[in-house]
Every structure is written in C-alpha cells, then in structure tokens.
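Re: the pair you flagged

First of the two:
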Amino acid sequence: MKVTDHIKNANGKTQFSFEILPPLKGEHLQSIFDNIDPLMEFNPPFIDVTYHREEYIYKELENGLLKKKIVKKRPGTVGICAAIQNKYQVDAIPHILCGGFTTEDTENFLIDLDFLGIQNVMALRGDPVKSETYFKPDKEGHAYASDLVNQIQELNLGNYLDDELLNTSKTDFCIGVAAYPEKHAEAPSLDSDIYFLKKKIKKGANYIVTQMFFDNQKYFDFVKKCRNEGITIPIIPGLKPIATKKQLNLIPHRFKVDLPDELIHEVLNCKNNEQVRQVGVEWCVNQSKELKKAGIPVLHYYSMGRSDNIRSIASQIF
C-alpha cells in the first residue's frame, strides 16, 4: 500500500514508522530482524531501508603504486526490502539515490522494485562520498533529486528511457522526498530550499520526510512556511533520540542541525552514555507527545541500526 493511502486510512490517528540501515557486509540478515522484531508490536505501516553507494579506497601495492578499489560496506537494500515485506507483511520503502547511479541503473532498479511489489520509494540526491568536497553525479546520472523524481514519475506514466519500446507497462510508485526544517547544508536560505522542494513536488513527489530536528517549533514553523507556499502533501517529521555524548558534536557537524541548549546541558551533566541514552529517550518522548497532540499523521524514527531506545519511546507514545 502507498504511504499516502496508509495516512488516509488511519483517519487522523498518528502512526509509527522507522528507518533501518542494511547490515555491514558479511553480517547475516537476522541482525536486521533482531532489530525490527521488538518494534512490530507498534504496527508500523511501513519501514524505510537506506541505500549506501560505493566508495573508493586506494591500496598501496608492493611496488609502491596505488590500486583503486571499490568498497560497498552496506549492500542489500532491495533484498532487505523484499525480505521485510515477505516476513512481516509490511510495506518496505527503499531509498534510491542520484549518486552512483546512471539513469539506466535507476530504471533497472525501479523495474526490480516494481516486480517485487514494492509500491513506495524515497528519492534522494545523496551525500558526497568521502573523497568529494561536493556531491558529484555520475556522468550519465542525475544531479538533483527533482530529476530523479521526474524519472520515477515518467516510469509511472509508462515512459522508459528507450522510446522505441512497445506495449510498455506503467509502474505505480508513491514517491517520498526529503526536506530540511533548518535548511539543507548547501542551500543559501530556507526560502531557496523550499523553492527546490516545490520543484520536486511539481515533478511528482507525493510525501515528505524531514531531516531530524530536536526543537519541535522548527518543524511547526517549517510546515507553516510550506503550507503558505502552497505545499499540501504530507510532511512527516523525522526524529532521532540522542544516545552518546559524542553526538553533541557529530550531529550538528554531519547533519547540520542545531541542538537546544537545554538538551546540551542535560547531556553534559550525564556521567556515562547510559544516562545520555535515557536523556535522549525522554527528550524524544516529549517531542513525540507534542507532535502527536498536534495531529501529525506519522512519526518517523531514525533507528541507526538500534531499536532498544526507539522501543522505549514508542511504548510511551503508541
């Protein structure tokens, strides 16, 4: 079922969803199930699965020359989605990126998803790899998420890259896109960010999931600004409980989001990360309660491969 249909069928009830990472290469699929199982009692209508592109490393040979080696540490997004739908009878949503894909790769990826009965996709530009200062698309790929959304929508209309194909079938993907209540790191302003968000919607996006935030007012202000700009599709908040002291520096640096002073002070006063995790859970519970009271259709949690703190939060909300 499409995300938009799940929201419609809930009749105003706030739903629970979450995002998982594929396991590291070499790990068993059971590691994913072990993290999903404790969360199934909260009846998630869908589960997101991230996609991780290839990166390159250089290994020094005995003769002193360097050999370029492709590394993909977390493969398996499509297989995991198929396994989730088969095991749990829950919609799985694969992330699909601009980075590392040609348009032909993208089309073939979407065809595979369609054959597997996957009805939702999350269309993202993706981040630069470690060797890049700024994002660089494949020479035959998309530079912007709006272009990726357009290709997905064209396939929904039955328009393939090879226009000589006859009797083509249409796909029927529900398309999710990302948004940033505190603006994307590369955007000059929030207004310009919303301008490009509207382009993604015009190309065919059906719903939005936000970057994590720790101050609900920033989400509410962002939603209001979007509505004033004529954006009417669902805007699902993304939430993450802070879990370690290290994240006080890591989260603002990597995700370009601010942490409230009150939360920072509470974390700094913790003696160990066990106490930090409890602070993170309590903070996220309070965020979730306020968002649920406001009638938000779905609360979406970034699990980052761990489910114990997400379960603690969900048990108090759902």
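Second of the two:
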Amino acid sequence: MFRLLSFVLLFVMSVSVAQAKEKLQMGLSVDVVPVGSDFAGQDIVVFGAIESADQAELYRGEYDVLIEVIGDLQEAIVRKKDRISGIWVNAAAREYRDVPSFYSLHSRNPIEDVVDPSVLSSLGIGIKYLKAKPVDRGNIEEFLTQGEFSSALRRKRIENLLFSERADSVDQISPSLFRAAVSLPPNVPIGFHTVKAHLFKDGKKLDEVTQTFEVRKVGFEEWIYNLAHEQSLLYGILCVLLAIFTGWFANVVFRKN
C-alpha cells in the first residue's frame, strides 16, 4: 500500500512538472494583408504571452522572445556583370533554391547577446545565419554570408527591404506579455508568410509557436495577378493586343495633330 501511494505521488509530481514547462502563446492582428494599387506597406502586430514560467525569473527579465517572419521559399538567380569592350554584360551566374522571399527578425535585445552564435547557426535564426541551396551543388546548403554570389544575394535583399533585423522591436507589456510591430514594405511578396516565435532562457530554446498570414492582391490587381499565374498564354496575348492598340491609338492622335 505504501509503495502504491509513493508511486501515485511521484506520478502526480511528474505531471505537475511537465505541465509547469514554459510555453508560448501567440496571436496576429491580421489573417490577410490586402494589396491594392495604393498599397504603401503595412504594419502588423504580433502579440503573445509566456505561460507556466517562474514569476521571479519573469520579473528579472530572464526570458527572451525572438520573432521571425518568413516568406515562401523560392528560387533566386544571382548574376555577375563584367565589362567587355566597354559594355557591361551578364557573365557568371548562380541559381539558388529555398531562399526566403521575405525575412524579418524581431527581438528585444541583439540576438547574439541572447543566444550563442553556434545555436543561432544550427537553428538558422538571423540574416547572418540564413542558408540556401545552390542548384549546382545538390542538396548542400551554404550560408548567405559565404562566397561572392551568396553574399550578393543577401546584400540585395537587404537593400530592397526584403531582409531586415530589429533588435529593439519586441516590447514587454508586462513580465509575461509581449508584442512586436512588423513592418511590411510596399514590395512585400505575395503569398503566405510564416510567423515563428521562439522562447529562450539562458541561451537555451524552450518553446516555439507558429502562425501564418497571407499577403493577397485585391481588386483589379488580383485579377491581373491570377490571370498572369493561372492563364499565362491568355495573359501574354492580352499584353500583345494592348501594346498593338496603344501604338495604333498613339499614331492616330499624333497624325491628327
């Protein structure tokens, strides 16, 4: 009987410990970001809470939340221009697979002050630690800081506001509540974007939650976009006809003048 009671007590204690493990809860302010002809970018809000955490450690600020916003993976080609006989032409090129179309990282402190670079590298968190697969190298991945072409790809994405990091953009509303404003640029890619929130303490990852939102064209832009992607032949024919009509109409106007 004593052994049975001891076993039950140990079981209840183990369940309580398991339930006390720190967890993240997260929500988004939008499910769909509509993109029309007047779209100039938009801010979305990521908010959430740290649950089952030690209250004293929460008040001491020992927990850190890193938030990633990741666009669809896509192919990307990087070309190098060379000057030949005084003319700049495309020379060597490299094609990559599985490159995020958009990447934004948000944190309360610089990420390398929160997590060891080796951990960030293994998790692929941060622009410095993003990887892609050169098509001519099979399934081998390389960091976008390695080599001339991959570094150029990373640099161009940063210049076009498609890759960004902000080390002061996660606000602690209370010891357990957090929020972050994510700025989407006017050229944000169309498609689904994944939001990942990572919970760290003492440089160790404790939990991760994921949600998605969609960037979608609306109105006439949506019709054109769907036509171009779903009926490319018809879209091409319409473009040619529009070009012919525009040229004919301009000729008529200028001839009258």
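Confidence is low (pLDDT under 50) at residues 1-19.

-B.
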